[in-house]
């Protein structure tokens, strides 16, 4: 990876001023930098010269007075850059990820922590539901472990559910993991992932295009998704409802010429509808990480690496179906975020099914039914997901079977009844 070039105090101030300029879009800033070179040269130009290159709106935005708190933000950035492991990568730096330069609107600044070489490595994204089912969490971690053990960096968005599982699965493998976040690099959202973010900064890479101190805002997350899509060669969607940020990532990846993969699931589960929609539109159906490696022409991990990965797997029987889904709608990465994706509005019947709980069941029975989801599972799998004592688990399974909520299958497997 190219070494990050030193930057003068004047140039740093100019970069930050232009990056913070309201109304100055990344594409317009890129055009101005292409015409005039360094950011301080852009600020030194007259209005007419800037307008001739990028339009009057961009010229007004670039030459506007900086925000009142600009000096404080510049000082905070200087202190942040001085901390070990932190780096500011400008659009003009040779260390800027080449894949992002193919975007029409690459971020002018990247705030990065950790192993910057991962931003240049071959990579694949694993994304999916924030309200992930137990099977989706297991599948995301399993796919991430195998892909990262094969040398691919696993990229995701640090959200709850599938994203977090993907990061954890890849964290200590050869390929590592990259978290593209929707807040400033000095903040962590969701707060529950602070320990995970610390681990990623130490063993992987954390990257943000947002200025320090930027909180979680709904508009940030679709923009974050475009960076995820641009950094990778393919996107694996593990689980998604019909209105999901994961579908935005998949659509953007497809528009950028990246491969899109989707895991199938039960036709009765709302959180598989997004994946099934992608498959209908041409995404590659995958049931194993090896299929992703083959499609991307990546060699599979060595026998020693596979043995190490298998020792990290939970000691339980493998589930032979792709994944299951709980009957509830997916959500976006942040509260109050309504992500529009034309053609992916869930039918009313499915939304109603997603919101209701089986009537007349106790708390233990509801918890067990939720852990079962829509894929077959054994007693051992359910015990691991629920931590129920064996006697309670067996009794609850019998209760659910007698109530018609699940069926017992040959070989010790249980499955949710379609009538339940």
TrEMBL record:
Domain named DprA winged helix: residues: 353-412
Name of protein: DNA-protecting protein DprA
Gene3D superfamilies recorded: 3.40.50.450, Winged helix-like DNA-binding domain superfamily/Winged helix DNA-binding domain (1.10.10.10)
Entry's family note: Belongs to the DprA/Smf family.
Region (Disordered): 305-358
Family matches, as InterPro entries: DprA, DprA_WH, DrpA_SLOG, WH-like_DNA-bd_sf
GO biological process, one term: DNA-mediated transformation
Gene behind this protein: dprA
Native source organism of the sequence: Paraburkholderia guartelaensis
Pfam families for this protein: DNA_processg_A, WHD_DprA
């Amino acid at each position: 990876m190219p070494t990050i070039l030193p930057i003068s105090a004047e140039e740093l101030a100019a970069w930050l001023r232009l990056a913070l300029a309201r109304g100055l879009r990344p594409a317009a800033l890129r055009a101005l930098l292409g015409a005039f070179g360094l950011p301080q040269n852009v600020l030194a130009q007259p209005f007419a010269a800037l307008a001739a290159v990028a339009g009057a709106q961009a010229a007004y935005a670039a030459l506007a007075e900086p925000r009142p708190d600009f000096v404080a933000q510049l000082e905070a950035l200087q202190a942040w850059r001085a901390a070990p492991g932190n780096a500011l990568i400008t659009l003009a730096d040779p260390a800027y990820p080449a894949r992002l330069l193919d975007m029409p609107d690459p971020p002018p600044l990247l705030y990065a922590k950790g192993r910057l070489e991962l931003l240049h490595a071959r990579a694949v994204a694993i994304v999916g539901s924030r309200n992930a089912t137990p099977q989706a969490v297991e599948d995301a971690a399993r796919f991430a472990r195998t892909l990262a053990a094969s040398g691919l960096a696993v990229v995701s968005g640090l959200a709850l559910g599938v994203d977090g599982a993907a990061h954890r699965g890849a964290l200590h493998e050869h390929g590592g993991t990259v978290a593209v976040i929707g807040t400033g690099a000095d903040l962590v959202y969701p707060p529950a992932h602070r320990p995970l973010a610390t681990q990623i900064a130490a063993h992987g890479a954390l990257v943000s295009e947002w200025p320090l101190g930027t909180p979680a805002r709904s508009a940030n997350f679709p923009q974050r998704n475009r960076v995820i899509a641009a950094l990778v060669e393919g996107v694996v969607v593990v689980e998604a409802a019909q209105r999901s940020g994961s579908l935005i990532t998949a659509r953007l990846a497809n528009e950028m010429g990246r491969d899109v993969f989707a895991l199938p699931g039960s036709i009765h589960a709302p959180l598989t509808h997004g994946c099934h929609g992608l498959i209908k539109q041409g995404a590659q159906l995958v049931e194993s990480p090896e299929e992703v490696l083959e499609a991307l022409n990546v060699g599979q991990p060595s026998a020693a690496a596979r043995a190490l990965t298998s020792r990290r797997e939970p000691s339980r029987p493998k589930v032979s179906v792709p994944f299951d889904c709980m009957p509830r709608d997916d959500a976006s990465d942040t509260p109050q975020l309504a992500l529009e994706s034309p053609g992916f509005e869930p039918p009313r019947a499915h939304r109603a099914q997603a919101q209701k709980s089986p009537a007349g069941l106790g708390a233990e029975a509801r918890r067990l039914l939720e852990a079962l989801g829509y894929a077959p599972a054994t007693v051992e799998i359910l015990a691991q997901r629920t931590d129920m004592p064996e006697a309670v688990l067996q009794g609850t399974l019998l209760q659910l079977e007698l109530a018609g909520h699940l069926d017992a299958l040959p070989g010790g497997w249980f499955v949710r009844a379609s009538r339940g």
